[in-house]
From TrEMBL, chain A:
Family matches, as PANTHER family: SULFATE TRANSPORT SYSTEM PERMEASE PROTEIN, SULFATE TRANSPORT SYSTEM PERMEASE PROTEIN CYST
GO CC list: plasma membrane
Entry's localization field: Cell membrane
Pfam families named among the record's database cross-references: BPD_transp_1
Coiled coil: none
Lineage: Bacteria, Pseudomonadati, Planctomycetota, Planctomycetia, Gemmatales
Chief subcellular location: membrane
Similarity comment text for this entry: Belongs to the binding-protein-dependent transport system permease family. CysTW subfamily.
Zinc listed as a keyword: no
Subunit structure: The complex is composed of two ATP-binding proteins (CysA), two transmembrane proteins (CysT and CysW) and a solute-binding protein (CysP).
Protein name: Sulfate transport system permease protein CysT
TrEMBL record, chain B:
This protein's UniProt keywords: Periplasm, Signal, Transport
NCBIfam families given in the database record: 3a0106s03 (TIGR00971), PRK10752.1 (NF008022)
Pfam families tied to this protein: SBP_bac_11 (PF13531)
Location within or outside the cell: Periplasm
Designated name of the protein: Sulfate and thiosulfate binding protein CysP
GO cellular component, one term: periplasmic space
Single GO biological process annotation from the record: sulfate transmembrane transport
PANTHER family noted in UniProt: SULFATE-BINDING PROTEIN (PTHR30368:SF2)
InterPro entries: Thiosulph/SO4-bd (IPR005669)
Lineage: Bacteria, Pseudomonadati, Planctomycetota, Planctomycetia, Gemmatales
Family statement: Belongs to the prokaryotic sulfate-binding protein family.
Source species, domain of life: Bacteria
GO molecular function, one term: molecular carrier activity
C-alpha cells in the first residue's frame, strides 16, 4: 500500500486492467474490427447479395444446426462422464480423466481424417453401419460426430469442479428429510449443475461454429447439403473476393454473438435461481 | 540484492539476444523463398538441393532455398498479404496473375522466361484400381452409372479446376458443343460422392479410404499415388486427350528488388531450363519442356493430345476462363445446383 489511499485489498488492479484491455484489444477486438471494416467496404445491397444468398443461408443453417446438436449431445455425455469421474473411485480413473483433454490437443484435421476413415463403408465401424442404412461419413451425421469429439472436454471440465464442490451433507440432509435418491438428484443436485452445464454448452457450441479442419474432411462439402459456412468463406477467398468473404464472416459473427449472449443470460439467471 | 541480480540477468539476456540477432545478420547466407502449390513439394526439394550445389560451385557462397507449400490460391493470397516470396510457382495462371494485380509482378511476367515461363508442364490423368475392374478408358466412361469419381472441389483447389477444364474440354475438343459439355460435366459431378477441399485430401479419399472407382489428378500426383499404393492402383491416360496443365514460374519483382535477391532469383528460374534440372523434373513425373529430355523419358509420358485451357473460351484469356466457369454463380455453381436434384 505505498500510495496509501487505495481501497482495494489486492494491489495491482491498475496494471492488471491495463494489460487486460491492451491484450484483448490487440488479440480480439482489432482483428474483429478489421473483419467488419472489410465487410463494410460493400454497400448494403452488395452485402446482402454476398452474405444472404440461398446457398449462404443453407450453410448458416447447417453450421448452427450441427453445432447446436453436437453441443446438446455433449451436455448429456459430458455430465455423465464428469459425474463418473468425480463421484466414483475405480482403477484407471486418472487415466480416463487425462483422456478427456485429448480432443483439445489433437489437431482437428486429424480427428476429421480418423473419423472419416472409421465410418466409410470399408472402415471399422462403417462396415456395420452402412448395411443398416446409417451413413456416418460424408454426411451431416458425420459433421455432428466430429463436433461432439472436438467440443467434448468443455462440458466435462466445467461440470467437474462444481460436482466436486457439492457437499455430501446436502444429499444426506435430503435423505434424512425422506427424499428418494431420484428426488435428491432432481431437487438438490440438478439445480446446481445447470449453470456449469450451460457454460459448457456455450463453449462447446462456440467451438462447433468455428470448427473447420475436422469438418471439411468428413463432410462431402456439397452445396445445400453438407457445406458449412466457414467452407463458404474459403470459397470466396479463393475467388479473391475478400469483402464478400468478410460479409459472410460478419453474419456468422452476429448470429454467434446473439446466441452466446442469450446463453450467458440464461446462465446468470439460473445461477441466481440455484443459490 | 535479489533485485540487483535480476536486473543484471535481464540486461545480460538482452545483450546476448541482441548480439545473436546482429551476428546472424552479418554471417547471413543468401536466401531465397519459393512459394509453391502443394503437389510440387518433392520436385522443389530435389531442385533446390541441385541449384544450391551449383550456386556454391560457381559463387563460393552457400545458398539456402526455403519452400512454402499450400493450396495454390491460399499461397497466392499469402504472397499478396506480404509473405516475402522471391519466386512463386503456382498451379494456375489466375493465381500468379493475382499476384501481379496486387502490384508485385511486372505486367509481362508470362513472357519473361522461355516457353511462356513454363519449365515444365503436366496434365490430368485417371488413377484406377488394380486391373481397372470398371474398365475406365476414356472421358465418356466417367458418366456411366456404375462409376464413382473422386476429384477435389474446383472452387477451392487448383487440381479441381484443371480436372473440371479437362472434363469440359474432352467434349469440346472433340467437336462437341458447349451445351453437350455442360450436360457431360453435370452428369460427371453427379457421380462425385465427396468434393474434397484440396488435392491431397482427394488422394487420401481415393487411395486410403478406397472410395470411388477413378481419381482425376495431376499426372505427377498420379505417379506418386500409384507408387505409394504398392500395386493396388494404376494410371490411365484417358483417350490420349487431356488438358495442358501450365504451372508457371515467376520472380516476384517487388520482393526481390527490396531484398536484393533479383539476380539469384533470376539464376534460379533460368536453372530450371537446364538439362540437369529438366532431368529432375522428369524424375518427379512432370513433363519436361526440353524436347531431348522429354524424348528420353517417353516411357513415363505416353504421347497425349494436350490442349490449352484458354481454348475453351472465345477470347482465349484466363480471366474469362475463371469468369465463365468458376466465378460465383458461373457454370460450376450452376451445375452443382442442377446436380443435386
Amino acid at each position: 500500500m505505498s500510495s496509501g489511499v487505495s481501497r482495494r485489498a489486492l494491489p495491482g488492479f491498475g496494471l492488471g486492467l491495463g494489460y487486460a484491455v491492451v491484450y484483448l484489444g490487440l488479440l480480439v477486438l482489432i482483428p474483429l474490427a478489421a473483419c467488419l471494416v472489410k465487410a463494410a467496404s460493400l454497400g448494403p445491397e452488395e452485402f446482402l447479395a454476398a452474405a444472404w444468398t440461398p446457398r449462404a443461408r443453407a450453410a448458416y443453417a447447417l453450421t448452427f444446426g450441427v453445432a447446436l446438436i453436437a453441443a446438446l449431445v455433449n451436455v448429456v455425455l459430458g455430465t455423465i462422464v464428469g459425474w463418473t469421474l468425480v463421484r466414483y473411485e475405480f482403477p484407471g480413473r486418472r487415466l480416463l480423466d487425462a483422456l478427456v483433454d485429448v480432443p483439445l490437443a489433437l489437431p482437428t484435421a486429424v480427428a476429421g481424417l480418423v473419423y472419416a476413415s472409421l465410418y466409410v463403408k470399408t472402415g471399422w465401424l462403417g462396415q456395420f453401419l452402412e448395411p443398416i442404412g446409417i451413413r456416418a461419413a460424408y454426411s451431416r451425421l458425420g459433421i455432428v460426430l466430429v463436433l461432439v469429439f472436438t467440443g467434448f472436454p468443455f462440458v466435462v471440465r466445467t461440470i467437474q469442479p462444481v460436482l466436486a464442490d457439492i457437499d455430501v451433507e446436502f444429499e444426506e440432509a435430503g435423505a434424512v428429510l425422506g427424499a428418494s435418491r431420484w428426488q435428491t438428484f432432481r431437487r438438490v443436485i440438478l439445480p446446481m449443475l445447470i449453470p456449469p452445464a450451460l457454460t459448457g454448452f456455450a463453449l462447446a457450441f462456440a467451438r462447433g461454429l468455428g470448427e473447420y479442419g475436422s469438418v471439411i474432411f468428413i463432410s462431402s462439402n456439397k452445396i445445400f447439403e453438407t457445406e458449412i459456412a466457414p467452407m463458404l468463406v474459403l470459397v470466396r477467398l479463393e475467388e479473391y473476393s475478400y469483402a464478400e468473404a468478410a460479409a459472410i464472416a460478419t453474419v456468422l459473427l452476429g448470429f454467434s454473438f446473439v446466441l452466446l449472449a442469450a446463453i450467458n443470460y440464461l446462465e446468470r439467471r439460473s445461477k441466481r435461481y440455484g443459490s | 540484492m535479489w533485485k540487483r541480480l535480476l536486473m543484471w540477468l535481464v540486461v545480460g539476456y538482452l545483450v546476448a539476444a541482441g548480439a545473436w540477432v546482429i551476428a546472424s545478420g552479418f554471417g547471413r547466407k543468401e536466401q531465397l523463398l519459393n512459394v509453391a502449390c502443394d503437389p510440387t513439394r518433392e520436385l522443389w526439394h530435389d531442385m533446390n538441393a541441385a541449384f544450391a550445389a551449383q550456386y556454391e560451385r560457381e559463387h563460393g557462397m552457400k545458398l539456402l532455398i526455403r519452400q512454402s507449400h499450400g493450396g495454390s490460391g491460399s499461397q497466392a493470397r499469402a504472397v499478396i498479404d506480404g509473405l516475402p516470396a522471391d519466386v512463386v510457382t503456382l498451379a494456375l495462371w489466375t493465381d500468379t496473375d493475382a499476384v501481379r494485380k496486387a502490384g508485385l509482378l511486372e505486367a509481362d511476367w508470362e513472357n519473361r522466361y522461355p516457353n511462356r515461363s513454363l519449365p515444365y508442364v503436366s496434365t490430368i490423368v485417371f488413377v484406377v484400381r488394380k486391373g481397372n475392374p470398371k474398365n475406365i478408358r476414356d472421358w465418356a466412361d466417367l458418366t456411366r452409372p456404375d462409376v464413382e469419381i473422386i476429384t477435389p472441389n474446383p472452387k477451392t483447389s487448383g487440381n479441381g479446376k484443371w480436372s473440371f477444364l479437362a472434363m469440359w474440354g474432352s467434349v469440346v475438343w472433340r467437336g462437341g458443343t458447349a451445351d453437350a459439355a455442360r450436360a457431360f460435366v453435370t452428369a460427371a459431378y453427379r457421380r462425385v460422392p465427396v468434393l474434397d477441399a484440396a488435392a491431397r485430401g482427394a488422394t487420401m479419399t481415393f487411395a486410403q479410404k478406397r472410395i470411388g472407382d477413378v481419381h482425376l489428378t495431376w499426372e505427377n500426383e498420379a505417379h506418386l499415388e500409384v507408387k505409394e499404393a504398392d500395386g493396388e492402383l494404376e494410371i490411365v491416360h484417358p483417350g490420349a486427350l487431356s488438358v495442358l496443365a501450365e504451372p508457371h514460374v515467376a520472380v516476384v519483382d517487388a520482393n526481390v528488388r527490396r531484398k536484393g535477391t533479383a539476380s539469384v532469383a533470376d539464376a534460379y528460374v533460368r536453372f530450371l531450363y537446364t538439362e540437369e534440372a529438366q532431368e529432375l523434373i522428369a524424375k518427379n513425373f512432370h513433363r519436361p519442356t526440353n524436347a531431348a529430355v522429354f524424348a528420353r523419358h517417353q516411357a513415363l509420358f505416353p504421347p497425349m493430345d494436350l490442349r490449352r485451357a484458354t481454348t475453351l473460351v472465345p477470347s482465349g484469356k484466363w480471366d474469362d476462363v475463371q469468369k465463365t466457369f468458376f466465378a460465383e454463380g458461373a457454370v460450376f455453381d450452376q451445375i452443382q445446383i442442377a446436380g443435386r436434384k
